[in-house]
Design a protein that fits this description.
Helix content is 2%, strand content 48%. It starts with 21 loop residues before the first strand and ends with a strand. The strands form five sheets. Strands 7-16-9-10-11-12 form a six-stranded antiparallel β-sheet, with no helix packed on it. Strands 8-15-14-13 form a four-stranded antiparallel β-sheet, with no helix packed on it. The protein has 196 residues and is an all-beta fold. The protein has one helix and 16 strands. The chain folds into two domains: 62 residues, no CATH class; 113 residues, Immunoglobulin-like (Sandwich).
């Protein structure tokens, strides 16, 4: 292609004064949009106006939180209600694997509170689990003995021969597997709290 007409529309190089400058068009003329310090983002402004630099900074221990389509994120303190939690309840009276699904995310740790299904026995267990670590504090022998273990997340123990124990043996994208060991006859009701 051969250009034969004189060029009358152009952007003078003199508008750009600093490395990183950009050009924006106003209602009539073009203008320089100079670069700014770090930690700023270029964001659109109101209709019929040009973009501007905005600081993208939050307070310490905050994170950028989405506020919906077409809106800019805000900085907020991290709260469990924003990251997702799941609470559930179940029971167990046999050994083997129990698969819990419907969590909606991959848990980093699961908290357990358990009680003997025979409430008058007064046997309780409070524990944590995440595959690598399982531990709990429990009351056993009809509430007359207290102990701690770093190898189980739940332990309900009626006496020396009747006890049910469990650990978190696997965690997946939507739940976890709890592996139970049963000696004699024993059963547990338990609450679990899954944290992301």
């Amino acid at each position: 292609m051969i250009i034969t007409a004189p060029i009358t529309d152009y952007i003078p190089a003199s508008i750009l004064t600093t490395e990183g400058d950009m050009i924006v068009r106003r209602a009539v003329n073009i203008e320089r949009l100079g670069r700014v310090a770090s930690s700023a983002v270029l964001r659109s402004s109101i209709v019929a106006d040009y973009p501007n630099w905005t600081a993208l900074e939050g307070v310490i221990n905050s994170y950028a939180k989405g506020t919906g389509a077409g809106s800019f994120p805000t900085f907020s303190a991290l709260a469990l209600r924003d990251t997702g939690i799941l609470m559930g309840i179940s029971t167990r009276n046999t050994g083997g694997n129990q698969v819990i699904t419907g969590v909606g995310f991959e848990s980093s740790v699961i908290i357990f509170v358990a009680i003997d299904t025979i409430g008058t026995n007064q046997n309780f267990s409070w524990g944590f689990g995440n595959v690598a670590d399982n531990c709990c504090i429990f009351r056993s022998f009809n509430g007359t003995n207290g102990a701690y273990t770093n190898s189980r997340s739940i332990q309900i123990q009626r006496d020396g021969a009747n006890v049910i124990r469990g650990i978190v043996s696997a965690i997946g994208a939507d739940g976890f597997t709890f592996t139970w060991t049963l000696d004699g006859a024993c059963a547990a009701w338990f609450l679990y709290l899954c944290l992301p």
